[in-house]
């Protein structure tokens, strides 16, 4: 399946969550077996070429693609969780949202010092969550210099923010506009 065929499986929902927003919904992509398999295969190949030793994904949709890529490569998966979700002592980072703040946490004992971790997520928009995840993983001792996404919304500048932080960004597809 080509990237163009995979892109055709992403549904656009107008005016969600607010008027004027074109929401890119991956539900239709992950419900399509061949499309999901092809997406995971393409992401896994890019992660393999980058020298990944583990894959990290942010809650929640990053868990879908990140875990599948990790399994495909025979690597471990590092869940980057929302605050209060892990049952052990964690390290965390607060980061800015459009309206307010949020917090991400990881179990630092799951990350050996110097481990090369590739971030995998469904979508990069403003980059706030991905940048916070990269900073948190680095704080835990990981080397994070690659992030892979199914979708990039380039008009929102997230990929550029990650590149400024020394993280190479690759996305399977992009959608112009909001």
Number of strands: 9
| Largest sheet strand order | 5-6-4-3-7-8-9
Query: Looking at CATH, which topology of the domain at 51-174 would you report?
Result: Rossmann fold
Secondary structure class reads alpha/beta
What distance lies between the first and last C-alpha atoms, to the nearest angstrom?
26 Å
Order of helices and strands: HEEHHEHEEEEHEHE
CATH class of the domain at 51-174: Alpha Beta
Backbone shape:
globular
What does the main sheet amount to?
7 strands, mixed
Q: How large is the share of residues in beta strands? A: 25-35%
Query: Helicity level, as a percent range?
Result: 25-40%
Mean pLDDT: 96
Radius of gyration: 16 Å
- Uncertain runs are none
Identify the CATH architecture of the domain at 51-174.
Answer: 3-Layer(aba) Sandwich
| Count of helical stretches | 6
Describe the structure.
With 178 residues, the chain is of the alpha/beta class. It has a seven-stranded mixed β-sheet with strand order 5-6-4-3-7-8-9, with helices on both faces. It has helices at residues 3-7, 27-30, 33-49, 61-73, 128-139, 158-164; strands spanning 11-14, 22-25, 54-58, 76-82, 91-97, 100-106, 116-124, 143-152, 168-174. The longest helix has 17 residues, at 33-49. It is built from six helices and nine strands, in the order H-E-E-H-H-E-H-E-E-E-E-H-E-H-E. The radius of gyration is 16 Å and the shape is globular. The chain has a domain at 51-174: Rossmann fold, CATH 3.40.50.
Task: Give a topology summary.
Layout: H1 3-7, E1 11-14, E2 22-25, H2 27-30, H3 33-49, E3 54-58, H4 61-73, E4 76-82, E5 91-97, E6 100-106, E7 116-124, H5 128-139, E8 143-152, H6 158-164, E9 168-174
Parallel strand pairs: 3-4, 3-7, 7-8, 8-9
Antiparallel strand pairs: 1-2, 4-6, 5-6
Helix pairs in contact: 3-4
